[in-house]
Protein: Outer membrane protein assembly factor BamE
Amino acid sequence: MQTTKKSTLLKFASIGLVATLALTGCNVFRVYTIDLPQGTPLSQAQADKVQIGMNANQVLYLLGSPSMRDTLAPNRWDYLYDYTAGTDGKRKKKPNVKDASQYLSIYFDNQGRVVRIDGKDSLPATRH
Structure:
């Protein structure tokens, strides 16, 4: 009888080991991760609407709030964008955007009028 118990126990242990190994290699049981967009996604078409001489309210209306407003440089608004693809983004083959490679900096004079725009060429033609 002991050999039967041992063989049954060995059979269940081997089935459990095989099942564990099979499930850990399965894509279905991976952890779901969320897409992580940070900042303001802008396109070149949106940035082209901003013109020299516009006031801050007009820029705010066209682009929304900037990602960063530096207290030491209050006449500069920075729109930055980073994106890390999660499970859905990877399925749709969306590229990651890292290290604020998409940015737009808008400079104002003391009267609140746009005097300079930097970074339009870093933006994609269309938003994703």
Strands lie at 36-39, 68-69, 76-84, 97-108, 114-118.
